[in-house]
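Might I ask for a little of your time on a matter of protein folding? The record follows directly beneath this note:
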Amino acid sequence: MKGPLFYSKILLFGEYGIIKDSKGLSIPYSFYNGALKKGDNTSAISLESNESLKRFAKYIQGIDDSLVRFDMDRLLEDVNAGMYFDSTIPQGYGVGSSGALVAAIYDKYAFDKITVLENLTREKLLKLKSIFSAMESFFHGKSSGLDPLNSYLSIPILINSKDNIEATGIPAQQSEGKGAVFLLDSGVIGETAPMVSLFMENMKQEGFRKMLKNQFIKHTDACVDDFLKGDIKSLFKNTKRLSKVVLNHFKPMIPQEFHELWKKGIETNEYYLKLCGSGGGGYILGFTEDIEKAKKSLATHKLEVVYNF
């Protein structure tokens, strides 16, 4: 048995902001994916995955039936027969490794599931998001449910606010375009939970809350609007502003050795960096109007283009 593939995701804009109702834009990223598998694989990775699935199965048994019901008999039977999640999605990199697993379990074992083929009303999207939020909390302590939603539907998701999300189209990629969104490998694994609790701690300070509302959320919302409209000139102006705010106010979320690189991008305008997910390691997201220039400037780092303008 090998289940259908579920993709990783990239939250282009909205990290941290969506906790406080900023806009957000999340897109599937098919370069990484994962699927449920059964078989006699006894590698250390598949055994570890199977153990984690056993714990996860126990956890979802406790989710309220009024929210979602699972075929627990079949799930437990498969897990006990050695089922594991075969995935190329790097863990702790901000690209949704647990989200893809949650989507795969829901797809295979949920009763009365909402499918991609239906008319996805806002109510249905919010219902899916709350189901996924309850499921993914097993991994992160608190989850918005957006990563699994993106992975499950495999379409871009526009977050207008906590209770207002919609499937959206994004401008077609320009394969000849010089502008690009790219991933930069920090070489460090990031952990979501400590970063989020640090953010929540900062939120107790009035100055930080003001900055979040008047700068961080304002620039994030503007970036989402620019990206969807295809207004590249304005997008880069706003991404630069966002990059500056993150460098000034989210330093602990940026691995130490990237502080200078971050600053250099803002000063030279060769690229602008921002957090990819909760930060602390994993990938860093980059935006550039000239990918060749950015590649030269970041020659000592591993770069992966995810979208071309």
Notes: The CA atoms of residues 42 and 112 lie 33 Å apart.
